[in-house]
Amino acid sequence: MLLCRVVGNAVAAHAHPSLKGFTMLLCQREEADGTPTDEAPIVAIDLFGAGMHQRVFVSTDGIGARGIVHDEHSPIRNYVQGVIDEEN
Which of 16, 32, 67, 70 is the 20 to 30 A CA-CA neighbour of 22? Predict the structure, then answer.
């Protein structure tokens, strides 16, 4: 599980059929203090309606992600496992 911040939406002109109907987000990995890492953002399917700049937990469990889309041949690996509530 990775601590990330939503930094954008991923849009594909052509995607695997198993991803139809799912929102895909660009998620930037962060340290616990909110500092972004130097790693490239990852794409994750969103199950919770996470918004831009929200902190989320992203699971990298590919078997779990393929179970969510009900296709064992899906290329998806990452999914938003939860949205983190933050006080402003």
Answer: 32
Mean pLDDT of 10-30: 94
pLDDT at 86 (0 to 100): 80
Per-residue pLDDT at 14 exceeds 70: yes
Burial of 87 (0-12, 13-18, 19+ CB in 10 A): exposed
Q: Following DSSP, what letter does each residue of 9-77 receive, concatenated?
A: EE--SS--GGGTT-EEEEEEEB-TTSPBPSSPPEEEEESS-PPTT-EEEEE--HHHHHHHTT-TT----
What is the spatial distance between Cα 67 and Cα 74, in angstroms, rounded to a whole number?
9
